[in-house]
Here is the input.
Amino acid sequence: MKLGVNLDHIATLRQARGGVEPSPVKAAEICLALGADYIVMHLRGDRRHIQETDLKKLAKIDRKKIHLEMAVTKEMLDFATSLKCGSVCLVPEFPNELTTSGGLNLCKRNLMSLTRAVKTLQKTGIKVSLFINPEPSDIRTAKRLGADIVELCTKAYSEVKNEKARQAELERVEMATILAKELDLEVHAGHGLNYKNVQDIAHIDGMEALNIGHAIIARSVFRGLPQALLDMKLLIGAK
Here is the structure.
């Protein structure tokens, strides 16, 4: 099981004062040194946390360890192809949302722009992930679009109110993983995963990577970033 650590909220804290600390790049160095497989950063259109300079500095350390989350816009495509990071996850993005609210809308009107984005990124050697809901139709569409990876949105799973609903959402993710693997797609999962709910997702056969940020950064306030990272690695069975 691979672990991608999202450091957006390190940048959120920095931006609150408009200074230079804490540094997401320094946090990335710590996480990579302790065994994180890659670093997730979401460069949003409103630049509320991660900035281009963060990604450029991290690229000087190891550009292939960058998993860039971004919306499907010309601005972001131009930046990603110049950065030449290891992988990109295409995500929906809306003004004033607190965080990504769900998977991409893979309706017919969006397919042409997504297809162009996937091809543009892959031409520069970047692996492409699509952040999607764990629905069979979305997984099949992701395959037709030529994606290398699907990241299954675990928002519904992480927000359930009772055990019956949790089991239903877990099964939904399990079935989606099976289908994605049958279609030869790499499978990731993320959104709302934390120290209490992550293990069942980590134990799904065929699940290859988990992308987790807020829970790790929140715990690091009390336990320190190295310990928070190691706690999560132990839970998910990452080596």
